[in-house]
Design brief:
Rossmann fold; Dihydrodipicolinate Reductase, domain 2; eight-stranded mixed beta sheet; two-stranded parallel ribbon; 16 strands; elongated
Length: 333
């Protein structure tokens, strides 16, 4: 890794040799050096790319899509924060304020500036504040930036060393709010109805020891399963969804003020008009391994969402085909 202050010279030398350049963030430490590097690359006809990878994270891209589609309405405000506890442990040039001005803004917060630029376009006006609060380390502990975008939207970026990790990027508009959490793995969306919180978990594709090929195969299976559900069942109904609140999962500070991590599992539902329960049939309830099926006093078979795991035993056993199970078929079960 090279010092931040050397980036501009290295880019110019590589460009003059006709080499495409990938440089880690920050591109440079001054606007003048950034323009010098960009001009050298442009005149040499080579690509200059900066390592801002967080705009490519799933939930951040979803926020961008919601903005571009107009689903969030007119965007009033953007917020982003990337912070962590590592400031005091930095050594060498990484602990030098001359190489890392504004503390964690140089190594962390710069990603969030890029994220908001990705979401809202060019910035017209900037105001920043830095503060050294702790006696540990040489760098500033906290930096806040207020931005006015050319579109009129206002934005805030916060970053700090010495606190537990924070990662979120949020957009607030007249039609709803959306924010990316947990390194872009989780998207939360809140519309005008405060009870209608949508959660999409975009992580979990990769296991601890998976190879890239295994991760790709897992992703393809999930996509194929989602497509099969759409193909098999056009009219998705609430009774086919079981909401699971995973309190044991790590939660961000923002999620404490909305909902804990939520995911949905598919479970069967029963078409009462096709069920033989009123005629004494009990095949599904007798075979259910989780005691999730019972007959009501009126003679209807009822399903307990709390007990059901979606195993499909009832679907494959029912002689009348009275169960709806989105995305599932008898051969699959």
């Amino acid at each position: 890794m090279t010092l931040h202050s050397t980036h501009a010279d290295i880019v110019c030398r590589a460009a003059s040799a006709g080499k495409h350049v990938f440089v880690e963030k920050p591109l440079t430490l001054t606007v003048a050096d950034a323009r010098r590097a960009a001009t050298a690359s442009r005149e040499a006809g080579v690509v200059l790319q900066v390592g801002h990878h967080r705009r490519f994270q799933g939930a951040t891209r979803r926020v961008k899509g919601l903005i571009d589609s107009g689903e969030l309405g007119e965007i009033y405000q953007l917020e982003a924060n990337l912070s962590g506890p590592s400031g005091g442990s930095r050594t060498g040039w990484r602990s030098d304020p001359a190489e890392c001005p504004a503390g964690s803004m140089t190594g962390l917060g710069v990603h969030m500036v890029e994220n908001l630029h990705y979401l809202a376009g060019p910035v017209k006006c900037v105001s920043a504040f830095c503060s050294k609060i702790s006696s540990v380390g040489n760098l500033d502990d906290v930096t806040n930036i207020i931005m006015e975008f050319e579109s009129g939207t206002l934005g805030y970026v916060g970053t700090a060393y010495g606190i537990p990790k924070v990662f979120n990027t949020a957009a607030f508009g007249t039609g709803g709010n959306a924010w990316s959490e947990d390194e872009g793995k989780r998207l939360r969306k809140l519309g005008i109805d405060p009870s209608a919180v949508e959660v999409a978990d975009l992580g979990g594709l990769r296991g601890g020891n998976d190879t890239p090929a295994e991760t790709g195969a897992r992703a393809r299976l999930l996509i194929e399963a989602a497509i099969s559900k759409l193909d098999a069942y056009d009219g998705f109904r609430p009774e086919n969804a079981k909401m699971l609140i995973a309190w044991e999962e790590e939660m961000s500070r923002r999620s404490l003020f909305t909902l804990p991590p939520v995911r949905y599992e598919m479970i069967p539902s029963i078409r009462g008009e096709d069920c033989f329960a009123a005629d004494g049939c009990r095949i599904c309830s007798n075979l259910c391994p989780h005691n999730a099926l019972a007959v009501s006093p009126e003679g209807r078979m009822i399903l307990s969402k709390g007990r059901c795991t979606g195993c499909g035993a009832c679907v494959s056993a029912c002689p009348a085909g009275a169960f709806d199970f989105p995305g599932a078929s008898l051969p699959q079960l």
